[in-house]
């Protein structure tokens, strides 16, 4: 049957992975001269200076950028909060904040002067300081040099194969120079309501009232679902926007198995958002989050799930989209699949982010006095469609809110949600082929095997992410405020608890919120 480019975005599928920079995953995607223009790491002399207060390796002066030597690097996960990101981008570390956890840092939180341009040379400085807190000692050179590494296409064949087979954006920027929840909020609402860091999570659960793309879709008769990888019992998208979406938890938040069924049956909604298993930190590409979940207790909780399980999950999504053949509903020809990341998570990148329009210039300053007038740095972004040519690189500047801006334009969804998506560049024009590429000709991709022991730990509920720990505290606060009785819950919702108990508590509370995920 004939297919029309006018229907290329009848259905949009977006998956959001975790905490990797562009350089970290795609910096070696193309060799110099292989494509007309590509802002990668090859043929560049990239390094970061070692601070003179480092106890080990300071005589080397710099750490050069090299290839990751294992599939779970950097390990432990670097600092990703606003305070850490400031140091990474500007190499500013206020002396009072050296060797301090982000939550213990003081004003001005390593922030730059107004108009100061990022130098992208503070990743080593921040990682040494962060690891000193994490390990209880200064790290060795071999330990902290991991922050200056990235992967080759051979190490991550799924992501690289898809990127080379379709279109990659090499200047796609995260929206907030900080961590997960604020950046995910910008993907779906073009604002984070002034919140910058994950904790306390009750900020998002109870005080984030911003209009979402989901609200706008419903106002214009468009359907949507959020699909969550099993066995995750909670949607972080739902939690971030609980104030707006609570009444949709039982109807629009479903297991990932339903996505595979919907693609097969041709029943995808207009907009699909896919979440990896963020609760276990499995299938999301996130670096190993910590050696010490509790102070002084080292737990080999995550290696090496971050890359390999993420690759396996991405392969499942890609194959589901590629094999969709419905003649009357959604199929591979009228579905655009977009692969994105929430934030770079402290992994190295060499391209400086620039200034950007605040979501609401009239709003008061956000957390830490942040004005939301500068963005986070680059993350991977790939578009998959039969209407996109093979091996193309889009060099213009895009950002998370480009998704909202594009949907508003293509689907006629009305005025901008905020000042941020109002100025974001749209990308529908990259679907430019006159004749679609048949899915049978798309790249055939096989992921590297994920260790069975790690998959078994996830299935048994033994793996638990740092993001999950933040969620636990937020859910306990929510349960207390709403009068929900939770057996075994500590009297103090902010107290430290074991990973096993935290996972149990999250599942108990989430099961009452997301009935179809439990």
Give descriptors for this structure:
single chain, 518 residues, alpha/beta, Alkaline Phosphatase, subunit A, 2 domains, 8-stranded mixed β-sheet, two-stranded antiparallel ribbon, 18 helices, 31% helix
Name the CATH superfamily assignment of the largest domain: Alkaline Phosphatase, subunit A
Low-confidence stretches: 291-304
Helix content: 25-40%
Number of domains: 2
Structural class: alpha/beta
Distance from first to last alpha carbon:
40 Å
Tell me, briefly, the overall form. Answer: globular
Relative strand content: 5-15%
Q: Could you describe the largest sheet, including whether it forms a barrel?
A: 8 strands, mixed
Average pLDDT, all residues: 90
Highest CATH level, the class of the largest domain: Alpha Beta
The CATH architecture term of the largest domain is 3-Layer(aba) Sandwich
Number of helices: 18
């Amino acid at each position: 049957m004939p297919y029309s480019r006018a229907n290329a975005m009848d259905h949009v599928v977006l998956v959001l992975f975790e905490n990797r920079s562009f350089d970290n995953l795609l910096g070696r995607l193309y060799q110099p001269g292989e494509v007309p223009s590509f802002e990668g790491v090859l043929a560049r002399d990239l390094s970061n200076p070692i601070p003179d207060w480092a106890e080990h390796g300071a005589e080397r002066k710099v750490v050069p950028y090299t290839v990751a030597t294992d599939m779970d690097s950097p390990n432990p996960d670097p600092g990703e909060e606003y305070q850490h990101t400031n140091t990474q981008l500007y190499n500013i570390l206020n002396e009072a904040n050296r060797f301090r956890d982000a939550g213990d840092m003081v004003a001005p939180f390593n922030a730059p002067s107004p108009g100061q341009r990022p130098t992208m040379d503070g990743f080593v400085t921040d990682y040494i300081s962060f690891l000193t807190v994490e390990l209880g000692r200064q790290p060795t050179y071999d330990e902290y040099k991991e922050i200056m590494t990235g992967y080759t296409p051979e190490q991550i064949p799924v992501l690289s194969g898809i990127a080379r087979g379709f279109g990659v954006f090499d200047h796609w920027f995260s929206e907030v120079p900080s961590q997960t929840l604020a950046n995910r909020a910008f993907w779906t609402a073009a604002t984070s309501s002034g919140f910058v860091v994950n904790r306390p999570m009750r900020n998002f659960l109870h005080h984030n009232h911003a209009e979402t793309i989901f609200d706008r879709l419903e106002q214009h008769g468009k359907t949507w679902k959020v699909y969550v990888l099993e066995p995750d019992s909670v949607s972080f998208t739902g939690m971030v926007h609980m104030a707006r979406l609570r009444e949709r938890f039982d109807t629009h938040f479903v297991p990932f198995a339903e996505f595979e069924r919907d693609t097969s049956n041709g029943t995808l909604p207009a907009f699909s958002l896919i979440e990896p298993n963020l609760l276990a930190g499995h299938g999301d590409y996130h670096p190993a989050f910590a050696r010490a979940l509790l102070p002084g207790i080292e737990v080999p909780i995550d290696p090496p799930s971050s890359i390999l399980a993420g690759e396996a999950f991405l392969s499942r999504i890609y194959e589901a989209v590629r094999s969709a053949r419905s003649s009357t509903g959604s199929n591979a020809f009228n579905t655009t699949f977009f692969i994105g990341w929430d934030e770079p998570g402290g992994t190295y990148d060499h391209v400086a982010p620039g200034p950007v329009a605040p979501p609401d210039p009239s709003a008061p300053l956000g957390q830490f006095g942040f004005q939301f007038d500068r963005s986070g740095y680059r993350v991977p972004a790939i578009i998959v469609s039969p209407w996109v040519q093979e091996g193309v690189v889009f060099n213009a500047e895009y950002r998370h809110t480009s998704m909202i801006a594009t949907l508003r334009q293509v689907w006629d969804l009305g005025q901008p949600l905020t000042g941020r998506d109002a100025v974001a560049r749209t990308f529908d024009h990259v679907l430019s082929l006159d004749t679609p590429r048949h899915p049978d000709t798309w790249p055939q991709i096989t992921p590297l095997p994920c260790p069975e022991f790690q998959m078994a730990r996830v299935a048994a509920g033994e793996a638990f992410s740092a993001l999950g720990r933040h969620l636990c505290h937020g859910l306990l606060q929510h349960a207390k405020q709403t009068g929900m009785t939770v057996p075994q819950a500590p009297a103090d919702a902010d107290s430290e608890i074991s990973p096993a108990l935290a996972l149990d508590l999250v599942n108990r509370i989430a099961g009452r919120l997301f009935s179809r995920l439990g």
